[in-house]
Amino acid sequence: MAGIKKFVVGCFDDEKVLFPAVKNVRKAGYKIHDVYTPFPVHGLDHALGLRETSLHTAGFIYAVTGTTTALSFIGWVFTKDWPQNIGGKPHFALPAWIPITFETTVLFAAVGMVLTFCYLCQLAPFIKKHHFHERATDDLFVMAIECTDKTNDGDLQAFLQNAGAKEVNVQVAETGWWLGRYDREQKLYREEKGY
Amino acid sequence: MNRSHQFEIPGSYKKWTIGLIVAGAIAVLYGMIFYHPFTPVVHGAAHGAAHASTDATRFWSVLLQNSVFWLLVVNASMFFICVTTMAMGGWQVALRRVPEAISSVVPIIGTVTFIVLMALIWGGRTDIYHWLDEEAVKNDKLLTWKKAFLNPVFFTIWSAITISLWYLLGKKMRSISLESDRNGPMDYETGKKWIFKNTIWASLFTVFFALTVASTIPWLWLMSIDAHWYSTMYSWYTFASSFVSGMSLVAIFVIYLKNRGELEYVTDEHLHDLGKFMFAFSVFWTYLWYSQYMLIWYANIPEETGYFKIRVQGPYKGIFFFNLIVNFLCPLLILMRRGSKRNFTLVTFMAILIIFGHWIDFYQMVMPGTLKEHSELLPFEFGVACLFIGLIMWGVGRYLSKNSLLARNHPFLKESMIHHT
Fold first, then answer.
1. Is residue A192 part of a domain?
2. Is residue A47 located within the same domain as residue A66?
3. pTM (predicted TM-score)
4. Which of A3, A9, B190, B280 is the most buried (most CB within 10 A)?
């Protein structure tokens, strides 16, 4: 469900500053919408308290679908629909079908996962996404914090500045474009190993 | 905790080691007394009603299967050390002493294997290696042609060189590692030199490994049982089998030591990576299994299909497909999840299953060629396996209790401690 929301955006230029900032922002009870980074940052998903993605489960289901599709279709063609004598092999020539089955499995899994990934990230052709900061694609770590009606954005901006943000501002942006958008379940901050 | 901590062998470990060795020794002695293994048998006698000859063949087949299998499995852990060293891999340093300990068993099992092989080659037997039968070779165009490779002298020399070089190069790798314990922390330059020295010896081992495990040794020791048949996939297949079992063995020992409260720097992350190796090489094994089978099935040339006829349609049908289920379907479906690669119980279970599966795999590589339909899977077969498992446990325990469990001065130790998959 698309909605216009207000965000406080803090930009960091150092990973070493970013991690404690993420920790402190979550500790203070603010809801981090997302952190945009120029490259995959190891352990950031964990620090953000994001749950494990289900993308691989989806991938497994696509793969099994691919296997089933290939085996049942080839099986039907070569035993029921158009049985042929190929090199004197039996009509149900399972070893000969394995390569195609394997490729179909990979194809289904790959294409399915790419599409699912795009859906989860709300990416699609001709969809223009809001950029919180252009340099998130180059050399800045951009943290976007979602504001509720109770958030005092002045306080929050000061908070981010203290946490080491190089640049802080307030932006209004549309968060999703798809029915039932993928809202990350964020766990509350806990004092425990690994956070 | 003391960083040069050594493993104190607990009583239960000693009991199991001794128990397994005794059980295995009883099995071998039983075989020596009741299976008459030292009466020379010519190939073909096994087809007759004379049961005594099948017994002798069974004795030697089981010994050959077990000694070659366990030797390749323990040697695979040195290969693991060498490839990770050459790849500048740091993650394995925290658990590196475990594969080192396993590879220290190579000289013991290597000696046993060499004795078994020599008994087969020079003991006047032709029931295991048909190509030793000079009369038969004379009238056989194919075997005459293969004589340049399949002859007792080359077999003996190459086997001796192989086993001793596995031992010596492995020993060098282990001694470089132990030497770092004695010399204290390294500065940047010393560390760099030390790593370079490691890399040199690791690459020598790996090249020799490729010349032996990945090519000639499975041809000589196992493929030549079916002397007329050949497959270019065979050595890779054998390598995949032994490597995945080797990684499983490492995982079992790591989990055992973890459960005893040792190996403090080894975390779920390291276990996850070992699990990945078990998973990936199970799939690799299947890839080779399939490639070998499918091409022969498709081409359907009589001299090639002979090998699979007895396995797929003969008395080994059950074992043949059981093999595929245990070594492919189970690892694929069970080890696929991230959570299961981090679960001690599940990884232990899968490791034991994989080792057992590949033991069965070697069983079906050896038995159909030597015993035809007369093979058995009874306490004698498992008893001999116990002997080798006991030997491995003894050697690993000895190495771990003599040396520090942690390669504490290894320059990559920190990388391993903060390892995160």
1. no
2. no
3. 0.90
4. A9
